[in-house]
Specification:
By secondary structure, this protein is α/β, with parallel strands linked by helices. It has two domains: 145 residues, Nucleotidyltransferase, domain 5, CATH 3.30.420; 184 residues, Nucleotidyltransferase, domain 5 (2-Layer Sandwich), CATH 3.30.420. It is built from 14 helices and 14 strands. The strands form two sheets. Strands 5-4-3-2-1-6-8-7 form an eight-stranded mixed sheet, sandwiched between helices. Strands 11-10-9-12-14-13 form a six-stranded mixed sheet, sandwiched between helices. Helix 11 packs across helix 13. The mean pLDDT is 97. The structure holds adenosine monophosphate. Adenosine monophosphate (AMP) binds next to helix 10 and helix 12.
């Protein structure tokens, strides 16, 4: 079956067409600047060069129309419309309602709408994507795959904040966690690579990308994760603060005369390694170059980022009563031996040691610990689209 995977943002739409039998990507692409001037669709059919079409995209309905046209047109198309057997949608927030992927129906749409106030930037965009696909492909089954679902196994002591309990009861304020599809995929794949049953493993997954999160996966279930009610909590990220004292918000607002929206923008867009490096860059390739060249801001940012990861690994080792393997994934985790080395060098306390030669790997599955390391260190590239396609196929075959 050919599965269309859709990841819909407020002004963008990423897509992949995946063959569920071979698990090959038949076409992948991106619609950018939806609803904004200068919109375009960029896509690469399997075995062909990248195609870019600059064209107006006033809304997501038009974007989906263009995706279907790209997939099915005579010249460069890869399928006919009736060959698309199902659509898998990445949904950011499933609240407490969704503990796994589900076939989309009216009730599911209503439930996604109901938790939209927990992810006001993401869930409405995800819903627009679902509705646009339903319009363009009536009768084709659709599946919702939630970023939060994998983390729903967390125990109460891990997901509750030290807030008055009534806020949880009234508004559902708690830790939900994100990147769940990635944490789930990587932990399962790590067990396969290690040739062990995931039910016998204590794993820590470090998803280090522009957004970054870390999770403790014990016996195949998530028992803790660093992102919270929103994806702002936890690790220091590309432009997001991660953990800070909540009083900082009021302090900055008063000192700089900022509104709530403005300070939110500071915390989400102007902070993280970008802010710490005095706006040198949010991209670790630039920061790595800066670090090597002796740039103080780059060193400050990368060292603070790495220290936070090590601190969480210590906490999650305690939470699970030990750790068998630590997995690095996403843009930085898969590609930056430099950052992995700084992190791994901080893990001597659990007997972990890195093999410098193996650690030069980029974007490939690889054990990077040395033979005498007490904990396995490994690079496991994530594949959220494939995980979404697998769930979609499993529910629609
Ligand atoms: P992601 O959010 O998973 O797509 O990761 C994107 C981030 O990965 C970029 O912003 C870079 O910071 C980082 N990245 C990608 N490639 C490399 C690389 N070769 N070396 C270091 N960092 C990289």
């Amino acid at each position: 079956m050919k599965i269309l995977v859709i990841n819909c943002g407020s002004s963008s739409l990423k897509f992949q067409l995946i063959d569920s039998d071979s698990e090959q990507v038949i076409c992948k692409g991106l619609c950018e600047r939806i609803g904004i001037d200068g919109s375009r669709i960029v896509y690469t059919p399997e075995g062909k060069d990248k195609i870019t079409i600059e064209t107006p995209m006033p809304d997501h309905n038009k974007a989906i129309e263009l995706v279907i046209e790209a997939l099915t047109n005579k010249e460069n198309g890869v399928v006919s419309l009736d060959e698309i057997g199902a659509v898998g949608h990445r949904i950011v927030h499933g609240g407490e309602k969704f503990t796994k992927s589900v076939v989309i129906n009216d009730e599911v749409i209503k439930a996604i709408e109901d938790v939209s106030d927990l992810a006001p930037l993401h869930n409405p965009a995800n819903l627009i994507g679902i509705k646009a696909c339903q319009k363009a492909m009536p009768g084709v089954p659709m599946v919702a795959v939630f970023d939060t679902a994998f983390h729903q196994t967390m125990p109460e002591n891990a997901y509750l904040y030290g807030l008055h309990y009534s806020y949880y009861e009234k508004y559902g304020i708690r830790r939900y966690g994100f990147h769940g599809t990635s944490h789930s995929y990587v932990s399962k794949r790590a067990a396969e690579i290690l040739g062990k049953d995931i039910k016998d493993l204590k794993l820590i997954v470090c998803h280090l990308g522009n957004g970054a999160s870390i999770s403790a996966v014990k016996n195949g279930e998530c028992v803790d994760t660093s992102m919270g009610l929103t994806p702002l909590e936890g690790l220091i990220m590309g432009t997001r603060t991660g953990d800070i004292d909540p009083s900082v918000v009021e302090f900055i607002m008063k000192k700089e005369n900022l509104s709530v929206a403005e300070v939110n923008n500071v915390l989400n867009k102007k902070s993280g390694v970008f802010g710490l490096s005095n706006e040198l860059s949010s991209d670790f390739r630039d920061l790595e170059d800066g670090y090597v060249a002796g740039n103080a801001g780059a060193k400050r940012a990368v060292d603070a980022f790495s220290y936070r990861v090590v601190k969480y690994i210590g906490a999650y080792t305690a939470a699970m009563g030990g750790v068998d393997a630590i997995c690095f994934t996403a843009g930085v985790g898969e590609n930056s031996g430099f950052v992995r080395k700084i992190i791994c060098d901080g893990l001597g306390f659990i007997g972990a040691s890195v093999n410098d030669e193996a650690n030069t790997v980029r974007g490939k599955e690889q054990i990077i610990s040395s033979a005498d390391s007490k904990v396995t260190l490994m690079v496991v590239p994530t594949n959220e689209e494939l995980a979404i396609a697998r769930d979609t196929y499993a529910l629609c075959k």
